[in-house]
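Reviewer comment 2.1 asked that we show a complete input and output for one of the modelled complexes. We chose the zinc ion case, as it is the one discussed in the main text.
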Amino acid sequence: MQLITVGGPPSCGKTSVILKTLKHIVDDGVRVGVVKFDCLSTQDAETFDAAGIPVLTGISANFCPDHYFVTNIEDCFAWGQREKLDLMVSESAGLCNRCAPHIKGFLSVCVLDNLSGVNTPRKVGPMLKTADMVAVTKGDIVSQAEREVFAFRIRQANPKARIQFVNGITGQGAWEISRIWKGAHSADTLEGGRMRFSVPTAVCSYCFGETRIGEEHQQGTVRKIRIPE
Ligand SMILES: Nc1nc2c(ncn2[C@@H]2O[C@H](COP(=O)(O)OP(=O)(O)OP(=O)(O)O)[C@@H](O)[C@H]2O)c(=O)[nH]1
Ligand SMILES: [Zn+2]
Ligand SMILES: [Zn+2]
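Response of the prediction step:
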């Protein structure tokens, strides 16, 4: 089964891009499915259902969404195989910009939204930096100059990635993306696989549910801001 990881900030257009792209792939007779990772809630399952695409949803709740991803993706992969999918897409919300849902050897896609501002490519961490492809949505509502600066900033953060502008509503640009996705890496198992980026650098009491503020409640690895006296 082919596996493609798609990550991007909330509401950037991931589901729209996936739907428009998979449409072209389904037209070629490929059986596709989606696993959606989100934090608190998602309506995406209904959207994929309505499009006739098998979908599995995981809600990470109080877990870091990317840690939740790493600890579940193997089981989700097995689900995709049981569903006899040829190609499975994982969609994750990417709320934690310190982590990334991308796996070595498998096609990884970062979706960014032109509307989010030209500094966004500098703020999105490994999710953008370790992606093979960057799909940029909502170019229809910004100027050509903004689109160019945005693409330039993406190249600064990730010089190797292929950048594809795509309209999540009309689907313009999705065919080009589908041609790349059709050639995505395929494997029988994720066993022995590795993430592209290690997470996290800190494990502290707050990771384990602490809510109280104060030095005496801070255990584990913490980092302090250097503040001039
Ligand atoms: N104008 C415009 N709107 C878009 C485009 N792509 C997506 N949208 C709209 O942006 C909104 C969010 O799109 P989604 O595809 O749900 O975004 P998402 O990243 O999957 O959202 P979450 O999974 O909830 O984080 C929807 O209202 C889409 O119709 C685009 O290229 N242009
Ligand atoms: Zn994490
Ligand atoms: Zn994280």
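The mean pLDDT is 92. We note this here for comparison with the apo prediction described in Section 3.2.
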